[in-house]
Amino acid sequence: QVQLVESGGGLVQAGGSLRLSCAASGRTFSVYSMNWVRQTPGKEREFVAAIRWSGSSTYYADSVKGRFTISRDNAKNTVYLQMNSLKPEDTALYYCAAGKRVGLYEYWGQGTQVTVSS
Question: Which among 36, 59, 72, 112 could bridge 79 via Cys, Cβ 3.0 to 4.6 Å?
Answer without folding.
Answer: 72
